[in-house]
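Predict the 3D structure for this chain.
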Amino acid sequence: MAPPMSASGFLDALRAEGVTVAEVGDWQHHNRNHKGPWGPVHGVMIHHTVTRGSERTVELCRDGYDDLPGPLCHGVITKDGTVHLVGYGRANHAGLGDDEVLRAVIAEKGLPPDNEANTDGNRHFYGFECENLGDGEDPWPEEQLEAVERVAAALCRHHGWTERSVIGHLEWQPGKVDPRGFSMSWLRERVAERLKG
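Done. Predicted structure below.
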């Protein structure tokens, strides 16, 4: 059982891991906590945005849209590797997912197939949206991939989690494909290496 860290602790953890951070507005208090609890947290979830253009992507992830209000994540990782903090607390990023996947994340075991959507993921995961069209062709610059690795490692390091606490949206919710363009097993290997340091 891990309570979420404070917003200032979250910021400090990211900076300590060498993440380039941009604070967007009153991100520390921008959340969906009135819709349900935030925590305990059990992992980090990675997404892609299906958008192009950093400014537009950050704005969309902060504000959301008519049928899905923002914030849509905690941080937006743009192509240049900057992590734009847009919210803190409950965010509309994970949606409903598989309770067996959550149990595997908590136990830090291999993930079963996600074949149900019966558990509130917005409560239990830190979420990062990565600027990418998600078409399998839009490139992932090394600066961006390194930032994804660093944010995941920062949160794992703080909570004492292993790389098995880092999952993709596609591993949580049936029908999702994000992030597309790299594999989560590859990312977890990179996070594991960083956590050794």
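Residues 41 and 124 are 4 Å apart (CA to CA).
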